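Chain A, query sequence.
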Amino acid sequence: MRPEIKIIAVEPVDADAMSQSLKAGKRVRLSNVGLFADGVAVREVGEETFRLCQEYVNEIILVDTDDTCAAIKDVFEDTRSILEPAGALAIASRHPFDDSVRTAAAAGIEAIVQPGGSLRDKDSIQAANELGLAMVFTGVRHFLH
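Chain A, predicted structure.
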């Protein structure tokens, strides 16, 4: 990894097993987890995932359900794509940093957003290109609820 690259992970506030584990320096088992973002709601993180996050993750942002819902709504209004809650976490986490992302883009810094849900369409890619941002997509699926 290049040290100038920062990896910022995102978890729901009510399913923050990785955040708590990294703070504790060992895997922590949660007594309960919120299920709104059920795709990432785990009581205990896996051994290898924990090891990799200890090594590579610089920061974890915790996102509440309201921000996740706002992200789902924003993406739907912009692209008519519907993200599942777990897929919306990366988008929800950027809301407090919108101005920072635009400032970074204006300074020539690339930002990579990797949503787990549906953002792989021409409108979102065009919007990212207009801001000068790189968007990377892996494992993208469309979820229609």
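The chain has six helices and two strands. Residues 131-145 have pLDDT under 50 and may be disordered.
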